[in-house]
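COMPLEX REQUEST
Ligand: 2-acetamido-2-deoxy-beta-D-glucopyranose
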Amino acid sequence: MDAVVKFTSQSQGRDRIFRATQYACALSIYLLRNNPERKDLVNKLKSLETNISAGRKLLRLGNTANSIVAVKQAMRLSDRVLRLCITAANINRALYFICDNLLWARNVGLILSIDKERWSINASRCYLYSLVMNLTRDLYVILQLMLQKGRDNHFKQKMNQHLSESPEVAEVTIPELDAFVFLLLETLRSEPTVALDTVKNICDLFIPLDKLGIYKSSAGLVGFCGLVSSLIGILTLARPTLRIKP
Ligand SMILES: *[C@@H]1O[C@H](CO)[C@@H](O)[C@H](O)[C@H]1NC(C)=O
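STATUS: Structure written out below.
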């Protein structure tokens, strides 16, 4: 199991680059869809996208083991809310990979008895639950940081200064709202790891919501969000200090 975990964490970087390419293809296909001169290119991009997607499924075969290790680690966290959110997120992620692996086996013809459509929906559902738990965690961390900042005297001074310096804002909007937005933005600015993780999770959210038909967005939006989230994924892998902890 250790060897599998080690190997899959090493292939994570590769997968993120493939993922970014896959969504860049999807976005380009969407942008070029009405251009008859580019029909050839669109067809090439489509086949590239399909191939990358199939290749990524193969690379993801060991990810279930990775997620199970992550579940075990998350269960040891001392903060109750974090423990619940991260454990649930990783359990759903493990279930997602199990569905994903079964779909891979179905696609290559190893097992034929499973219903592709149903398992694909199961996979999207698990992915969605994992994202919702991750976003709950982000929200919880942001609220805690905001409370902390709000109690900080140095920050209070800064906030009062901001509120007194922006009369045009104070006139049109509610001062409490202005203070809240200021506190929120300052919090996100001081903790870029949390800000990045939140943006990434929100971007990812559009993918399962679209697949499950809960919120139908355009193929362009899904491609764009997938690309942004993949680029953030590459960034946090290249710069581990930007990665949310735990
Ligand atoms: C949820 O967060 C965990 C830990 O940060 C991460 O490993 C996992 O990939 C996230 N889930 C999804 C679906 O992005």
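REMARKS: The chain has ten helices and no strands. The pocket of 2-acetamido-2-deoxy-beta-D-glucopyranose is lined by residues 89, 93, 127, 130-131, 134, 204, 244 (CB under 6 Å).
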